[in-house]
Design goal:
It is found in: Cell outer membrane. It is a multi-pass membrane protein. This protein is mostly beta strands. It has a single domain, classed as Maltoporin, Chain A. It is built from 7 helices and 38 strands. The chain has a 22-stranded antiparallel beta barrel. Strands 5-11-12-9-10 form a 5-stranded mixed β-sheet. The longest helix is centred in the first third of the chain and has 17 residues.
Length: 719
């Protein structure tokens, strides 16, 4: 593995500081492993992590294994990349309803906020353009509102950095994997209701248990309705979720799992604020709605999942799985088309679109522990296929009003069907279909030549086809190629609690822009080097990590110097490097914590477009996340739980020169168990009522104020 000199120096310095912070003497590198108990997780008879319990059963914030980026469950210390797991308790304690809400409070993630369920989620400067359910991916984007709700999921697993071994045509940011709540062998259920300031309302029913007397057929049903807080005038945001699942034991070693998820969103779109006449952000005006009363976004999505797993006598596990997603989004809304002038008037712009998207993901894998060199190693082999089809009709207008308007006039603007108007005028109208299809075979080997060292190597051979049809221009483009994606890593156990790790990973991303000859550009290519140290304590209940990384991304589509060019060139190059610190889990059975610090440094080596490269300006250099919760047991405070946290970031700016200072937001929680079945919780968001901006954009839009202080009270009854 080749690591550039500057990066080697920074990584070595970081690791030296890490060793000191964790109190590990330098002589530990030469020590024998005194306690190898954790290696018992894998034996030649099987891997106990294959049967890992859900986080709703184990409770707390601590979990010692994940499936993201590994295909089969692996201990967090044995994954040579940065992985975070947010458990069910952590989701509920902090009151998260959607993935973007979770991302705002999770170390290493950055959310460019829109309406909840329509935001863009980033890690290490790159957007997560897909999310997986039980390892099966489908596209995710803010414009289609496909950011998922969390009601159906037991935990959220987040990997940062390229993950091309199992998903090669993906972004550099990594993978988000949502692990479904599964049917249970014992009957359980709960009903939850919530209400809060700014018209926040919610209700949920979650029931699971055996369907037949023998428990061979088990089911689960989750129904959820959420009305998000409406601190911006007129900005309604309602969503409904339905999740149904069956697990069927075909025999003692074979299980068939079936799942269906439905989501519906209905939103009066808030596209953010303009800046003032002097380019200033509009502090103190966070409830102002710079849109029309008829702004509308509606979407629905349906996901069908099937999974067949079999445990072989030799300890191996085979899995066949499929996911089909069907989505539709329709939106039509007006927003600011300019900055405010001295008279506090502005132009009006608009967008309307219809999006149909279908995604199919198939995966077949087999994993097997085996004995070699007197130790237990493991391999995974498999094949997968995915096909994404997206059909988009879109219309834009830079002027929906006759001249400039006041805020009240914008709110009361006469209805305009922006898509139909653009189609009629023949300006600002697009109609396209994009298809991405990829098939691949992959293999990964985790070999332990000695008990303290794991060498991990893998590779993926992929073949992809990308097709773009522009119906307006009556033009079609396609590209078909094969790619090999390597992966390498190592994990060295310093002692029973600490491991050093290093990894190299690659990824590529097909593009839909064409060059001067009319050919689609070659795929973007990216790679990452990462080194770090991981600690696992209290039997895996508490996990810590310090890491340093460097990513390079090249061949991004760039606009040529010729102002009249209708093509692009693949010359854009980015370099991103940084460091992360994270501690997650349970200090005791009563005390849970999530804490992290992220430092990010980006460099545009060769610019592509302001839109693409400008995203990196929106990534603060420093972000701090902290959340902790303590539950009292016994005595006068029995049943009481207290929680609190802070999210802080340094200043950031957009490519349009709009700057936002750093800020810190404090949240708090109080919970109480009234009895064996009834519990209550009070969440206070932005406790100090900090007036801040969580995102900035152009002079006309995407300047998003943070929510003011709010309170949400909830009651839960378990039966």
């Amino acid at each position: 593995m080749i690591i550039r000199e500057g990066y080697t120096f920074r990584s070595t310095a970081l690791l030296g500081g890490t060793l000191a912070l964790m109190g590990i003497a330098q002589t530990a590198l030469a020590q024998s492993i005194e306690d190898a108990a954790r290696l018992d997780t894998i034996t030649v008879e099987g891997n106990r992590l294959y049967e890992m319990l859900p986080s709703e059963t184990t409770g707390g914030y601590g979990i010692d294994a994940a499936t993201v980026g590994t295909k089969t469950p692996a201990a967090l210390r044995d994954i040579p990349q940065s992985v975070s797991v947010v458990t069910r308790d952590a989701i509920e304690d902090q009151g998260f309803a959607t993935l973007d809400e979770l991302g705002r409070r999770t170390p290493g993630m950055r959310v460019l906020s829109n309406d909840n369920g329509r935001s863009s989620i980033y890690a290490r400067g790159y957007e997560y353009d897909a999310y997986s359910i039980d390892g099966l991916p489908a596209p995710m984007s803010s414009i289609t509102g496909s950011v998922p709700s969390l009601a159906a999921f037991d935990r959220v697993e987040v990997m940062r950095g390229p993950s091309g071994l199992f998903n090669s045509t993906s972004e550099m940011g990594g993978i988000v994997n949502l692990v479904r709540k599964r049917p249970t062998r014992e009957f359980q259920g709960h009903v939850t209701g919530s209400a809060g300031t700014d018209d926040r309302l919610g209700a949920q029913v979650d029931v699971a248990g055996p369907i037949d007397a023998a428990g061979r057929i088990r089911g689960r049903l989750v129904v959820d309705h959420t009305e998000h807080a409406r601190f911006v005038d007129r900005n309604d945001n309602d969503q409904d979720d339905l999740y149904a699942a069956l697990d069927i034991d075909l025999d003692e070693a074979t299980t068939l799992g079936l799942g269906f998820l439905h989501n519906r969103k209905d939103i009066v779109v808030d596209n953010g604020q303009p800046v003032g006449s002097d380019g200033e952000l509009l502090y103190g005006d966070r409830s102002a709605f710079y849109g029309a009363d008829w702004n509308d976004f509606e979407s629905r999505s349906d996901d069908w999942i099937a999974e067949l797993s079999h445990r072989f006598e030799g300890g191996g596990v085979g899995r066949l799985a499929a996911r089909y997603s069907d989505r539709r989004a329709d939106y039509n809304y007006a927003f600011g088309g300019s900055a405010l002038d001295a008279n506090e008037t502005l132009a009006v712009a608009g967008i309307g679109s219809e999006v149909d998207q279908q995604a199919l993901s198939l995966d077949a894998s087999y994993s097997q522990p085996f004995s070699a060199f007197g130790n237990v190693s493991e391999f995974v082999v498999g094949a997968d296929h995915k096909r994404y089809e997206t059909d988009t009709r879109s219309g834009r207008s830079r002027s929906l009003a006759d001249g400039r308007v006041t805020l009240d006039e914008l709110n009361e603007l006469a209805f305009v069907d922006v898509l139909d108007s653009a189609w009629t005028r023949g300006r600002g109208y697009s109609d396209s279909e994009t298809t991405l299809e990829e098939s691949g075979v992959y293999g990964k080997l985790a070999l332990r030549p000695v008990a303290s060292l794991a060498l991990i190597a893998g590779g993926r051979l992929s073949h992809y086809d990308v097709d773009l049809t522009d119906r307006v221009a009556d033009d079609s483009q396609s590209r078909s190629e094969g790619e090999f994606t390597p992966y390498a890593g190592l994990v060295y156990d310093l002692d029973a609690d600490h491991s050093l790790y290093a990894s190299y990973s690659r990824v590529f991303k097909p593009q839909t822009s064409h060059d001067a000859d009319g050919d689609l550009l070659e795929p973007r290519e990216g790679e990452q080097f990462e080194v770090g140290i991981k600690g696992s304590y209290l039997g895996g209940a508490l996990n810590a990590r310090v890491s340093a990384f460097r990513l390079e991304d090249e061949n991004r589509a760039a606009t040529p110097d010729d102002p009249g060019a209708d093509y692009v060139v693949g010359v854009g190059k980015m370099r991103i490097q940084g460091a992360e610190f994270e501690v997650t889990g349970s200090l005791t059975e009563q005390w849970d914590v999530i804490a992290g610090y992220t430092y990010l440094d980006t460099e545009v080596k060769q610019a592509s477009t302001n839109r693409d490269d400008g995203v990196f300006l929106l990534m603060p250099h420093s972000v701090v996340n902290l959340w902790t919760q303590y539950g009292f047991e016994g005595g006068a405070l029995d049943g009481l739980s207290l929680g609190g946290g802070v999210t802080a970031m340094s200043d950031f700016a957009s490519s349009n020169g709009v700057e936002a200072p750093g800020h810190a937001v404090v949240d708090a929680m109080v919970g109480y168990d009234f009895g064996a079945n009834l519990s209550g919780q009070l969440n206070v968001h932005n406790l100090l009522d900090r007036d801040y901006y969580q995102r900035v954009g152009g002079v006309n839009t995407f300047n998003m104020p943070g929510a003011p202080a709010s309170v949400v009270a909830s009651l839960r009854y378990d039966f």
